[in-house]
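Recap quiz, item 2
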Amino acid sequence: MAYGTIATDDAILHVGVSGGEADAPFVGRGFSDEACALPAAPLAMPTQSIEAETGALYRLLRRLRGGAVRPSMDVGA
Amino acid sequence: MIVTSLLCGLGAFILFLEFGEATGLTWIDVFRAVLILISTLWLAWGAMLAFVGMTSRARPPEGVEDAPIRGRTCILMPVYNENPEESFSRVAAIEASLSEIGDPAEIHFAILSDTRDEGIAAQERAVFRRMVEECDGVGRFFYRRREKNTGKKAGNIEDFITRSGAAYDYAVILDADSLMEGETILTMIRRMEAEPQLGLLQTLPKIIRAESYFGRAMQFSASFFSPVFARGLAMVQGRTGPFWGHNAIINVRAFAQSCGLPELKGAPPFGGHVMSHDYVEAALLARNGWIVRLDDDLEGSFEEGPENIVDHAKRDRRWCQGNLQHLRIIGAPALKPWSRFVFAQGVMAFIAPLFWMGFIAASIAAPLLVTPPDYFPVPGWPFPQFPQSAASMAISLAIGIFGLLFLPKLLIMTRAILSGEAKRFGGSGRVALSTLCELLLSSLTAPVLMMFTIRSVLEVLMRRDGGWPTNNRGDGVLQWPEAFAASWWIIVTGCGGLFAAWFLTPELFLWLLPVGVPMILAPALLRWGSLPSLGKLMITPAEQSPQRVIQLYDAVLARWGVDAQSSIPVVPLRLPEDGLKA
């Protein structure tokens, strides 16, 4: 099944759903699968930096563990 | 508030040290005092939130009620192996609620399926077709199912934004059990438009449709107590508010710009996908200068909750892992200080029971670890020096701690009775009785829930990944074997603790009964809590006069042939083999 569409095979029309009148297979009338595909309108979602690799806490933890700390831009300047 | 909480913690610390000093201060007293300090600090913080909530009032933005809506909005319902009839009927009810008031925004709906079960996926497509047909929703209703559920729910939303996000200004994020009034959604959109820097607006969802004793207690608590705590939270957090993952609206561009989550280095539970992504997304929006706000004045926002303690514990297991994972993120660069505090608070919520249990265990074992007091400290002096009585200090400490636990709820009850708000909950007498029953029930279940939480934390610390099992919505009555299988280890712990106290510290035995007895009775509590409630207490406004969207939801369920009152089918609950490794 392609992204952004609903299934088109006839099998789904015979899927039983539990309870009452829904026990009868539901058959759509005048239904277009393509019309229910999500609109194609991409929006960039850049990956964020969320793990501490800089900052006072990270530097403190690294120092406590005896690890090397990379100098920040300010320190190098 | 932080200072007051600290003072409460320090007060308990000093009081306990003085209590210990009366019989000769030892290292075990200092250890227990530190545990009391941390635990009291946490309790005091919760009480402070309630006091702030009781003494402040929400001020909704003015002049936005009838403003024209310009932006486009899509309502997103991510689903994962849920019952499609139940979840899609909520979408249909929301659509009907919007249609009744004219839907000036022409809102779209997207079902974002991450369902792995092919049978359920086929049902989803069938029910979706039916919903589109009935709602005349072609061009407004969308369905897509991901082939891989990368990134779980956060990845599901991200997939929508990267494929279709540019088509919308706002997105309302729901859970599969969310239900929202159309008017509420329009108000949220208007508030977003009135404040362009608003990146996320969170509502306070109320629990509805609970039927078991435990579920109804949670429902009453969420309707009666939670709004006051939420008010306090909204006041305290301000522009760096919370996001609880659903029943909220986002500015799509702000979210896209700020909330692309990476996979954390390493393996689960501390590495891998960010599990409790909502807290992180709120922090990232705030980091980028967007406002994240909890508008607790907004009514018409609902969800459903677990109907029994086992399902509650399973959900807590996921949240526990997610919150402890935040230890990796708490030091992320450029986060607002308040965001870091929220992460710490989330961690504390799960590790606090460890401190309480540590305190109890240390108190029982104290005679093994220290020498008894010397009543003849001066050599050759014939008269004994008895220690000053410490009973009054111990009682003061106990009263203080129980006060922090119970006083906020009792004050909320008193305020509701005096202000007339109690009428919405069935009247003053019923509110008073409901509050007392809730306090009793929460006191009985607290030791059991504490044990489940401790187990969850230990599992995470042992790097056992809980995964993301499907929520057991609809739940079920727990049969005795299932209740016993889930809690036998709690009985063993309770018996062991009381047995040890009887021999080591008999003077503590009676004090420990309120903790030990509920642990020994855990299977009965689990079983009883899951039974359909027959009482007439714990009434909520949503039951007294159901809001329109709830009526519409019932109508859709009836039309689709789903029994609206069958949310607790008497069927065996499938438990994991080891009871609760969910």
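Confidence is low (pLDDT under 50) at residues 1-31, 64-77 of chain A.
The radius of gyration of chain A is 28 Å.
End of item.
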